[in-house]
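Message: A physicist's question: would you kindly supply an amino acid chain plus fold tokens?
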Amino acid sequence: MATARAREPVLLEPKGPVITAIACTVGAALFLGAAGAFAYATIRTAADLGRTDGRWTWAGLGLALAAAFVAYAGLSTVFFARAERRATLQLAAQGVDAAALVLAVAPAPPSNDDHDQVRLLMRISGPGFEPFEHSGEVVRHLFGSTTQGTVLPARVDRTTRTFTVAPRPAAPTPRAEDA
């Protein structure tokens, strides 16, 4: 008899509308520009296949393949940005407030865009779902002062187990008139 297994938890980095719009614009520009280059190279190659020298044919095929790859990367960027934004909105609408207890902190390699990171092992618990553990990388400039035992605010989608954590709010600085 098969048993239903809970989904693996996913740490989501929330994406705002501006970042999503920028990513979609870059992806669309890559897709449209590369698709045009692909069409040009393919047409030019097909037209030159009757020639005997064949120099443009191999160069055109290489250019067409490179343009197809860039077009695919651009289209993937658009789809990925939209999916992340959709997940962010779904988490905001359907998620519940939770707490993430930091069990361990370890250094992590830099991200793909050279941001320093730390790896956090966390136990996430809250109302309406069974507590779970997750280990993931977060950016150091937001979570660098996090230590073992720190409780971070979290938001969890109970059905998909997608969650996000926020850095602990900084302590308020004392004002001169309070002293």
